[in-house]
Design goal:
alpha+beta, Immunoglobulin-like, 11 strands, about 25% helix, about 35% strand
């Protein structure tokens, strides 16, 4: 038997190349560019404000008997890019590292009551207040007994959950900070 090799005609090859080019163009304009724009928007919003665990005043510590994390959070002005306003802080994420090296991330939101988070000198179940703007400090007490088990929290990091319009953004964490054990 004789094998006949047939090549693709130049017309078919041209049509396939045009189709491929249109497909790549569609993919870039409808998928890649919106992803890059969203990441740039998040970056601009999240650089406008930063939160950190304040440890130098002694209010940030882990109570080993009650398994409560006393967290002194401070807000600082970030970098305002291109006229971006300071966003509304909707909540706070807390990253914890335990004695065994494991970690947990928990979050809480302002303007709601919680049975696991309270402001210092208030009871659990009260509405949590998260100040807006920059240059504020607040101590929150988190009941993390279910999250840590028998371990203790040795390092923490915080990040704002911000809101712009109807959209929420979770910003990146600050540096992990070692905390006291009491």
């Amino acid at each position: 038997m004789k094998r006949i090799k047939k090549a693709i005609s130049p017309l078919i090859a041209t049509v396939m190349m045009v189709g491929l080019t249109i497909g790549v163009f569609f993919l870039i304009t409808n998928v890649v560019i919106p992803i890059i724009q969203r990441q740039t928007e998040i970056s601009d919003i999240c650089t406008a404000i930063s939160l950190r665990a304040v440890t130098e005043e002694g209010y940030t510590y882990f109570d080993t008997s009650s398994k409560e994390l006393h967290l002194h959070v401070g807000s600082e002005r970030g970098i305002l890019i291109g006229g971006v306003e300071i966003p509304k802080i909707k909540g706070i994420k807390v990253q914890m590292v335990m004695t065994g090296g494991g970690g947990r991330t928990i979050g809480f939101y302002g303007d709601v009551s919680s049975s696991k988070v309270r402001e210092k000198a208030k009871e659990y179940g009260n509405v949590i207040n998260i100040p807006q703007g920059t240059d504020w400090r607040r101590v929150y007490v988190l009941n993390v007994s279910e999250d840590v088990g028998t371990e203790n929290v040795v390092k923490v990091s915080v990040a704002p959950i911000v809101e712009r319009g109807e959209t929420s953004y979770e910003c990146g964490f600050s540096m992990l900070t070692s905390i006291l054990q009491k």
